[in-house]
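for the writeup, i need someone to sanity check this before i put it in the appendix. the sequnce is what the collaborator sent (i think, or maybe the updated version? ugh). structure was predicted straight from it, no edits. if anything looks off just tell me and ill rerun, i have time this weekend
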Amino acid sequence: MRLLIFFAACLSITGRAYAQVTYMGMIGSFPIEMATKFYSDNNVHAVYAYTKFHDPIVMNGKTENGKMVFYETDKKEHKTASLTFSVFSKKAATLSGTWRNMVSGKELPVTLHKEFDIEDLSPGKRLDREILQGSAMKQNYFRIVAGLRNGDSAMYVKGVKILDKKTDKLIQLVTPDGEFDCELSGGGLHSVEVGDYNFDGFEDFSIFETSYAGPNTSSLYYLYDPNAKQFFKSSFEGVSLEFDKKTKTISELNQCCAGRQQTLKKYKVVNNKMVLTEQHCLILDEHKDRYIEHKMKDCE
């Protein structure tokens, strides 16, 4: 069997992915799928999954002197496996390497054949690509559908495929409305995240939307309807939302002015809607070296 592997690199100036190369190949006798992003400092981030199970595994690595090495780690960040290409070039038509279990020492050969390079595309030639996501549910996994904007070389998320891990069957295709224009997160590897956003015990998912000034970000939130067995777009919105399962509350932190001003809000969930319960405006007093609470209008 063959596999698809997506490679994405980033511009050293903007940090955006500038290349995505698709490979077909094998690791031993096991087909896998992998998505990888290269950074300008030679660090590499990757996600791969055995196509029999579709459970994504996150790896980090580095390219140096024509060699590329990834490492798998456990929850305690201990290295458990490596994927090594002793001779690596993004322009190469074929890549050969070795996967090694760092606990048992078992090794498997790797052979990949390049099939697609996004550098061959132009803004006028829109060819959509599917990218495996680093987050998955217990029963389902995700692929984003990434495409080019008209007149632009930057890729964005056009939709999300939700698939069954066991059968690879398409469960749902989310194709949001025309206002949907989400940037690729982590080179497209982490555009989708999983969580229980309305605290009803069912897994939901979000799609990274954009980054604003400083650490501020926004996402779109899709909730699961157990009766329809489908996901629907919620009205949840806000800056850098955090979800607390213990208190069943949502926190929003909006920072500006190089962190000198912070707007803090807290919400509860009622009938799948965010209901504001408290809010605070904090402004840094540089003389006292601490944040002082002000009226909300001072943060607007």
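Residues 43 and 62 are 4 Å apart (CA to CA). The chain has no helices and 23 strands.
thx in advance!!
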